[in-house]
């Protein structure tokens, strides 16, 4: 099996879809960082909606966006690659346009905008992973997926930082950020479309059997719902514990968020490469163990008293982020390695369904557990994650494809 230890930056960019596609990812992430963290604030301050109504509309948009995933999977299996990525960006342009057009108090236009933003946000990961899997193979593909995540987190962080500074301008600044987000999505869609990459579904690579069904991956997909809770720990669980239970300054929450972003940007590729000597399933199991240990670390940190709890939580968050990085570097690559090439899109769509569902329900579950104290929150998350890791470890792969070939990319017609 190929290793990524000698991949150079230029080769990594090429394996990730090329320079234009990398720029598209960066522009898209920058635009997303400008608006997504402040979408709730937009609904409350610009459209004068109540916070509960705004939150429900956003949640409905996210969940409803998952309904499109089976169709996205079938489109990808017909060969769509750059067109699918561009479409996921363009549909968010429509969402932003509806945000800007919505008059104050109009909850249905806001909910429709949230729906289109949700569709784009849910469709993008599967479309992006399918594109990278068509360009790169084996462990080179794993590193390319890691590079895409690092680049995206850098763009999100930069966009969020710019938006935080701009918020001093009030509602006008929020509307300006929404407009800038729409322009960023439109620019990114044009760049992604210009790559003009598609796969030939008729070209079955060696190792694929005609009519071969997609692997069930039931344990993997069910476990993934729990694994993705780690993505909301820095944004939901840690601020909730620090501010409401430890009565610490919000600065500590900001420090956790910044540290998470910096670590993902700097360590996603090196850690993915370092662990490429092990099987993807073993690495995914290991990530569950690391995450579970970090949750127990948060529980211990919460009991240290007011002087030490907050800095201890920040320290443990580094371990949690490392677990997140290992998880992100193994889950999608494992699915792309298991799926037959002609059913790659549907396999990635099913993974995104489990990811989106986990992200949608985790805030409610985290806040409910936290209301019963740190032991319920961190102990519950640790037990559930260990159980999920065990399920992943015991599930049997239905197929083995050592060379992990992919259909050759074709120019778009």
Task: Characterise this structure.
- By secondary structure, the protein is an all-alpha fold.
- It folds into 2 domains: 9-199, Growth Hormone, Chain: A (Up-down Bundle); 218-394, Growth Hormone, Chain: A (Up-down Bundle), CATH 1.20.1250.
- The chain contains 17 helices and 2 strands.
- The chain has helices spanning 9-15, 19-35, 39-46, 51-65, 69-77, 82-101, 107-135, 138-166, 171-195, 218-227, 229-245, 250-274, 280-301, 309-328, 331-338, 344-370, 374-394; strands spanning 197-199, 409-411.
- The chain has a two-stranded antiparallel sheet with strand order 1-2.
- Helix 10 packs antiparallel against helix 17.
- The radius of gyration is 21 Å and the shape is globular.
- The model is unreliable at 1-5 (pLDDT under 50).
In summary, what is this structure?
This protein is mostly helical. It has helices at residues 9-15, 19-35, 39-46, 51-65, 69-77, 82-101, 107-135, 138-166, 171-195, 218-227, 229-245, 250-274, 280-301, 309-328, 331-338, 344-370, 374-394; strands at 197-199, 409-411.
């Amino acid at each position: 099996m190929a290793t990524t230890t000698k991949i150079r930056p230029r080769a990594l960019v090429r394996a990730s879809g090329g320079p234009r596609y990398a720029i598209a990812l960066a522009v898209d992430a920058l635009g997303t960082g400008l608006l997504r963290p402040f979408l709730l604030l937009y609904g409350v301050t610009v459209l004068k909606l109540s916070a509960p109504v705004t939150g429900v509309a956003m949640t409905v948009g996210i969940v409803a966006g998952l309904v499109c995933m089976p169709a996205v999977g079938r489109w990808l299996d017909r060969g769509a690659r750059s067109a699918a990525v561009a479409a996921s960006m363009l549909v968010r342009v429509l969402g932003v346009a509806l945000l800007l057009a919505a008059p104050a108090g109009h909850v249905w236009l806001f909910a429709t905008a949230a729906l289109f933003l949700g569709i784009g946000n849910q469709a993008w990961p599967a479309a992006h992973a399918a594109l990278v899997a068509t360009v790169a193979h084996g462990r080179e593909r794993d590193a390319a997926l890691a590079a895409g995540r690092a680049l995206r987190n850098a763009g999100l962080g930069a966009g969020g930082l710019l938006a935080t500074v701009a918020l001093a301008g009030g509602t006008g600044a929020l509307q300006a950020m929404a407009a800038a987000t729409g322009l960023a999505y439109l620019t990114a869609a044009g760049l992604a479309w210009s790559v003009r990459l598609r796969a030939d579904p008729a070209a079955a690579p060696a190792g694929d059997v005609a009519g071969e069904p997609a692997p069930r991956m039931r344990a993997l997909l069910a476990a993934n719902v729990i694994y993705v809770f780690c993505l909301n720990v820095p944004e939901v669980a840690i601020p909730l514990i620090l501010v409401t239970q430890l009565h610490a300054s919000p600065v500590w929450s900001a420090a956790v968020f910044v540290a998470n972003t910096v670590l993902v940007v700097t360590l996603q590729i090196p850690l993915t490469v370092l662990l490429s000597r092990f099987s993807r399933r073993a690495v995914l199991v290991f990530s569950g163990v690391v995450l579970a240990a970090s949750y127990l670390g948060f529980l211990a940190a919460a009991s240290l008293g007011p002087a030490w709890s907050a800095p201890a939580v920040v320290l443990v968050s580094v371990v949690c982020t490392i677990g997140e990085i290992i998880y992100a570097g193994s889950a999608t690559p494992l699915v792309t390695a298991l799926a037959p090439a002609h059913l790659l899109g549907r396999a990635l769509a099913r993974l995104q369904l489990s990811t989106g569902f986990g992200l949608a329900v985790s805030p409610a579950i985290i806040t409910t557990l936290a209301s019963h104290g740190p032991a319920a929150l961190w102990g519950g998350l640790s037990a559930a994650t260990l159980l999920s890791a065990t399920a992943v470890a015991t599930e049997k792969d239905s197929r083995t494809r050592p060379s992990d070939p992919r259909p050759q990319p074709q120019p778009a017609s």
